[in-house]
């Protein structure tokens, strides 16, 4: 296990280094000029050249990369080229919204998918199991935007239980208000992802229900539920953990639609606005943060696989 962890950690570091080079290089291929964005039509060519020099855009690209990545290693993602604000500080404020949003959505997804997926598998080929399977298929087909608008209409407009949009200006200074603001966005994301995960939980549990080891466990006097709880879930968890890792990555990148609908000041909204403004330093920091998060999730999923089934190590 120690060798495996060292090897995977080394691969993680190399992956992040390559990702930083790719992010930096790709953003330089985008059309437009941040100096022209700042100066507009009022700046003369000489003023634009002076502004580029002031922003460091006239230096060779390798020098720009080394300066940027050196700061990132020390936790400094640079400063916005448009307004001079600290990218690290702004990312921290946005993560205070996006982080709990993703965690809440995953909690909703798991609490929906695991019990219902198991229940549907144990009642396979029954009317109730078929109905739940069809309902999960319907949940997958529902667009996230439509579901978000439906939740707003029911719980915010009609029942007035929860706020329709926005997030407290003072952030988590008042936790109750902040949590109330995230309930509907978490449901909008979690219900859709939960429907997807439910299908995988059902398939995984179905795969182990008729396995030899489960029949052996039942021959020792265990009920089907007891055998599944003691021996089945561990074997069914491998594909579910993989899909769960993909869902976390999807929510990190794809939560921008829900953040827009609920006007949440999260990382997704920030990224879209900064790409439009061509604020390269901020976009670099945001892209690298997302890529790093997704890469680390893959790293954790690999470790989880080894912990769940140590035989994977022997197979390699």
Describe the structure.
By secondary structure, the chain is mainly α. The protein has 14 helices and no strands. 78% of the residues lie in helices and 0% in strands. The longest helix is centred in the N-terminal third of the chain and has 36 residues, at 87-122.
Identify the quaternary structure here.
single chain
Shape descriptor reads globular
Sequence stretches where pLDDT stays below 50 over 5 or more residues: none
What amount of the residues lies in strands? under 5%
Biggest sheet layout: none
Mean pLDDT: 85
Number of strands: 0
Distance between the termini: 12 Å
Radius of gyration: 24 Å
Which structural category fits the helices and strands? mainly alpha
Element-by-element helix/strand order: HHHHHHHHHHHHHH
Helix content: over 70%
Number of helices: 14
Question: How would you briefly describe this protein structure?
Answer:
The chain is mainly alpha-helical and 316 residues long. Helix content is 78%, strand content 0%.
Give the helix/strand layout.
Elements (H helix, E strand, L loop, with lengths): L1 H27 L5 H6 L5 H11 L5 H13 L13 H36 L4 H15 L2 H15 L16 H35 L2 H8 L4 H31 L1 H6 L5 H11 L2 H29 L2 H5 L1
Helix pairs in contact: 1-13, 5-6, 5-8, 5-10, 6-8, 7-8, 8-10, 9-10, 10-13, 12-13
Supply database-style keywords:
globular; mainly alpha; 316 residues
């Amino acid at each position: 296990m120690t060798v495996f962890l060292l090897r995977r950690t080394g691969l993680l570091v190399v992956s992040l280094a390559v990702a930083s080079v790719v992010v930096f290089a790709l953003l330089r291929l985008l059309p437009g000029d941040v100096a022209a964005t700042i100066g507009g039509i009022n700046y003369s060519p000489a003023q634009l050249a002076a502004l580029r020099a002031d922003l460091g855009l006239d230096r060779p690209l390798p020098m720009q990369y080394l300066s940027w990545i050196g700061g990132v290693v020390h936790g400094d993602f640079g400063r916005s080229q448009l307004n001079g604000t600290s990218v690290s500080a702004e990312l921290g404020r946005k993560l205070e919204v996006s982080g709990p949003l993703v965690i809440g959505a995953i909690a909703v997804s798991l609490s929906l998918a695991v019990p219902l997926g198991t229940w549907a598998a144990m009642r396979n080929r029954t009317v109730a199991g078929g109905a739940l399977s069809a309902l999960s298929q319907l949940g997958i087909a529902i667009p996230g935007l439509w579901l978000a608008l439906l939740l707003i209409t029911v719980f915010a407009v009609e029942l007035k239980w929860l706020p329709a949009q926005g997030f407290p200006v003072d952030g988590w200074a008042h936790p109750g208000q902040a949590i109330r603001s995230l309930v509907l966005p978490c449901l909008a994301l979690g219900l859709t992802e939960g429907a997807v995960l439910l299908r995988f939980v059902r398939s995984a549990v179905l795969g182990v229900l008729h396995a030899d080891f489960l029949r052996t466990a039942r021959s020792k006097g265990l009920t089907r539920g007891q055998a599944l709880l003691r021996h089945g879930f561990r074997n069914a968890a491998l594909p579910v953990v993989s899909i769960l890792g993909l869902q976390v990555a999807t929510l990190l990148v794809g939560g921008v639609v829900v953040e827009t609908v609920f006007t949440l000041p999260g990382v997704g909204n920030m990224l879209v606005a900064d790409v439009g403004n061509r604020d390269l330093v901020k976009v670099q920091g945001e892209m690298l943060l997302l890529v790093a998060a997704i890469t680390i999730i893959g790293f954790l999923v690999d470790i989880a696989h080894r912990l769940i089934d140590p035989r994977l190590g022997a197979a390699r």
